[in-house]
Structure to design on (197 residues):
């Protein structure tokens, strides 16, 4: 009976340790997992190392990290970095706010035309202007700048937008919200691109 109890205790200990490692792997195991994931991701070479684009938890740090990640990806493609401009930053914020206000994760939230936020900040107009955007949202770690950029790199339409040589300027907005579409602690991302003649 005592040996049976020791065996049961050992099994419980092994199961508990396995659960701990799965939910909180040590650094060496996390590095192996990251290498394995990168080997399966054909676009991982376009994602800056974590040390190159550090981001804190506040909005400004996250947005700076996003700009760094986007410029890094473009540089790997032989493209110049994009200048961050106020009108596109403001347009990005307006789009993120509309997405949350209407609970409509789309490029046309609240039924407004795609150009609505660009028009509202005066980015579009009588002069020839081109613009585009990528949007994303995620809860918790899935809403981090790094995870979002990885997702965009692995999406043909988002990647095509990001790597367009036409763009000269960009604007970024990250809007943290307590809940969105049934998820808690969500970050809404809007990355806008433009070129004015």
């Amino acid at each position: 009976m005592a040996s049976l109890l020791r065996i049961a205790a050992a099994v419980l200990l092994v199961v508990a340790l396995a659960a701990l490692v799965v939910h909180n792997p040590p650094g060496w195991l996390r590095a192996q997992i990251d290498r394995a994931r990168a080997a399966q991701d054909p676009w991982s070479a376009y994602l800056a190392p974590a040390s190159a684009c550090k981001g804190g938890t506040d909005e400004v740090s996250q947005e700076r990290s996003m700009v760094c990640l986007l410029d890094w990806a473009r540089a790997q493609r032989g493209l110049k970095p994009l200048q961050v401009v106020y009108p596109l930053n403001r347009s990005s914020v307006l789009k993120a706010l509309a997405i949350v206000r209407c609970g409509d994760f789309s490029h046309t939230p609240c039924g407004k035309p795609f150009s609505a936020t660009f028009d509202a900040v005066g980015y579009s107009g009588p002069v020839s202007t081109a613009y585009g955007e990528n949007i994303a949202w995620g809860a918790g770690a899935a809403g981090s700048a790094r995870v979002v950029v990885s997702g965009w790199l692995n999406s043909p339409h988002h990647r095509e937008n990001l790597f367009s040589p036409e763009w000269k300027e960009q604007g970024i907005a990250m809007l943290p919200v307590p809940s969105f579409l049934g998820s808690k602690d969500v970050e809404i991302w809007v990355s806008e691109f433009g070129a004015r003649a």
Remarks:
- Strands lie at 83-84, 129-139, 169-180, 183-196.
